[in-house]
Amino acid sequence: MKSKARRGSRGKWATLTVSADGYVRLTVSAFRAIALTHLLSELDADIGLPPSTASGACLASIAGYTEWASQTTPALSLGWDWRIETTAGQVRYEREGAIRSNVMLVDEWRRDLGAAATDVLLCIAIDSLEWQLAVDHYISNRYACHLSNLTVTENRSSL
Amino acid sequence: MRVISGAVAGLPEGYYGRVTHYRHRVFVEQLGWRLHVQDGSETDQFDRADTVYVMVEDGAGNIAGCSRLLQTTRPYLLAEVFPQLLNGLPPPSDASVWELSRFAAMDFNARAATPLAQFANSATALLMRASVACAAERGAQRLITVSPVGIERLIRRLGLQAHRAGPPMIIEGHAIFACWIEVSGSEHA
Description:
heterodimer, A: alpha+beta, Nuclear Transport Factor 2, Chain: A, two-stranded parallel sheet, 6 strands, 21% helix, B: two-stranded antiparallel sheet, globular
């Protein structure tokens, strides 16, 4: 066990530690009380950027990954893949696949829920957050020179 | 494709030079890492007599991938250079924990070799499984990697049990992180 952090909601003191196996263990409710901050997002290089003359239809092939972390010590680290889906002219980011993290969720008796159950619960938690705007902003700035020619919807001039 | 592995003294003649040249092409020329280079080869202080190398060679005799295994009971990359990636945990020093580094599977004979193209490369899966198996043969129960963040996607897609040690950090412009891989129970055979 290593570092400890005072963290939590409603004035509660919660203790976070890194276990020898590298996991940070906490309950679902404790996890949900911790704010996550966007670190970085990237496009998948293999997908390829649309050419400058591309139409909005090309957005269907854009995918990437994003990385988020807590400001706690030790930090919670979560990353996931995303894909841009277009339906009826509307563009949205969709999480794709499992969450990659250093989190092991535990029950109220501090027993591990296991990797599979943790994956499911983290996916539910992440899907309830509005992460898309941060990713969109970051990607738009990072790849502005490549994506500025895209016309996606009437109210969005760029991705 | 075939797998070649072993310490320098156990490798076929010329293969150590080939792997360091291959690493130069991947990490210096393609990925732009600022590493120690000499005469077109990339080496560092962790390339020692006890370092274990794993290589994949294609049917034409070209190196198609390589990795490096280090015991954590001796100096290794994560502990010496990037301990901050462990999220506050002391670097492991345990005979059952080995470090996997310099993992690359880039096919330079493909029409368009890009850094992330390695994930679609058939040599990649073979190299990862061979690396895990090679470490297991030497007593490893867990691997710790220091790698670009993309390697975690590969590990998970291969069905290996793995989880990150902490958040990625941007070091010299590259997002890298540390990741635990379970050798026991992983389907590496």
